UniProtKB/TrEMBL annotation:
Domain C2H2-type: 3-33, 33-56
Alphabetized SUPFAM superfamilies for the sequence: beta-beta-alpha zinc fingers (SSF57667), Zn2/Cys6 DNA-binding domain (SSF57701)
Organism (species): Aspergillus novoparasiticus
Region Disordered, annotated ranges: 101-129
GO biological process, alphabetically ordered: DNA-templated transcription; positive regulation of metabolic process
The UniProt record lists the keyword Nucleus: yes
UniProt keyword list: DNA-binding, Metal-binding, Nucleus, Transcription, Transcription regulation, Zinc, Zinc-finger
Example of a GO MF term: zinc ion binding
UniProt-recorded name of the protein: C2H2 type zinc finger domain protein
Length: 395
């Protein structure tokens, strides 16, 4: 099994996971190790030590003192040094050496007793509070029925990308309508905006000339970014309408949507044969079905979001920045959706083994990875769908 670099512009492969993690730390380029004799810089401390031994005859270099990053310190695990350290790179979270900074929005003594505390990286998995779990439950209860692109049955908060979990908590906070909850949601949303921007090198394939369908698809991160965009519209106090009577996007949000849509296009996520090619016949059939359905439902949610926002001011916004090659629009059209409709909503909505067994047809375990089902692609009915609402596509 080969371990592939998650950075969209890099196709490096390694046989061992630890070698991949060490490689990925080099993409960040946040820390350089400088030779004290010739001032030459290196990306790794062991490379510096070899340089000093071979070039300058130094037998042994005293390694610089290590400081554990915030995540490793909170988890009480060994930190490999950084930033970024290999553990934070592996989890796709921001790596910081600073002390954990908590933001407790409102500081209102009359507010809920379990105020949600947010730090500038992400919560450690073990620190998830009952209050946060409550907001995750509200996400699935109130928001998920309208935007069902995360598979609830296989969702495990302790195993998910922290950025996704936090984005879901934002929605749950906002939907709860509890005292001070919406202001907390906005504060957390602003913190996540910074995290998304800081990690752009990992997920943004829009500016990469090497991005292609064989690169990794960071689906949980893209799900989080889509939730982030949707919330940015939900929380607007008095959003202006475009000439098409749809809410307009702020330039920063439009730019984020543009990068997300362009990344999905360049990675080939809208093309059904690419979805099939990520699996082999020996993979567990139920997981193959869930994985393909999740990509299809995410694509349709992204399509719905693009249709929901005004395009009347698009040409004048920052999304036409020349650094994003290959496209000048964040619009998605039905003709772009080159895959069949999602299938079997009861099976997708199943959250228990009993519900799954009851809804699962026999053919769900016999997916033909060589059958592209091209005649059933949504794009084949593009002319009709462009004139209709898209909410039924989830059915």
């Amino acid at each position: 099994m080969a371990f592939v670099c998650r950075f969209s512009h890099c196709n490096a492969r390694y046989q061992r996971r630890e070698h991949l993690r060490r490689h990925e730390t080099q993409h960040h380029r946040r820390q350089r190790f400088q030779c004290s004799n010739c001032n030459r810089e290196f990306g790794r401390s062991d490379t510096l030590r070899r340089h000093m031994q071979k070039v300058h005859g130094v037998k042994e270099c005293a390694p610089p003192p290590k400081q554990a990053c915030t995540y490793c310190r909170d988890q009480k695990i060994r930190c490999q040094g950084g930033p970024p350290c290999s553990k934070c790179v592996y989890r796709g979270i921001d790596c910081s050496l600073s002390q954990q900074v908590e933001v407790q929005p409102g500081d209102d003594p009359s507010g809920p007793p379990d105020t949600l505390s947010i730090n500038h990286s992400t919560h450690s998995k073990s620190s998830r509070t009952e209050k946060e779990r409550h907001f995750l439950d509200l996400y699935f209860k109130l928001f998920h029925p309208h935007w069902p692109f995360i598979h609830q049955g296989s969702f495990r908060e302790d195993n998910e990308t922290p950025l996704l979990v936090q984005s879901m908590i934002v929605i749950g906070l906002w939907a709860s309508k509890e005292p001070n909850a919406q202001s907390k949601a906005i504060d957390l949303h602003n913190v996540l905006s910074s995290a998304i921007h800081q990690q752009k090198e990992i997920w943004d394939a829009s500016t990469s000339k090497d991005a292609c369908s064989t690169c990794s698809w960071p689906i949980p991160t893209y799900q989080a970014i889509l939730l982030h965009i949707i919330f940015a519209v939900l929380c607007k106090d008095s959003g202006a309408l475009g000439l098409d009577l749809k809410p307009s996007l702020a330039p920063a949000v439009a730019d984020l949507l543009h990068r997300l849509v362009t990344s999905c296009r360049k990675l080939g996520m809208l093309y059904y044969p690419n979805m099939l090619s990520r699996y082999c016949q020996n993979d567990l059939a139920s997981l193959v079905w869930i994985g393909i359905e999740e990509v299809k439902r995410f694509n349709i949610a992204l399509f719905r979001a693009c249709r929901a926002f005004s395009s009347s001011g698009e040409q004048g916004s920052s999304i036409d920045s020349p650094d994003i090659a290959g496209t000048t629009s964040w619009r998605l059209y039905a003709r772009d959706l080159q895959f069949p409709l999602p299938r079997n909503t009861p099976l997708w909505a199943a959250t228990s083994r009993e519900e799954w067994d009851s809804a699962a047809p026999d053919d769900v375990y016999g997916i033909n990875l060589n059958d592209t089902l091209e005649a059933e692609w949504i794009s084949k009915s593009a002319d009709v769908l462009e004139l209709t609402e898209t909410s039924h596509l989830f059915g």
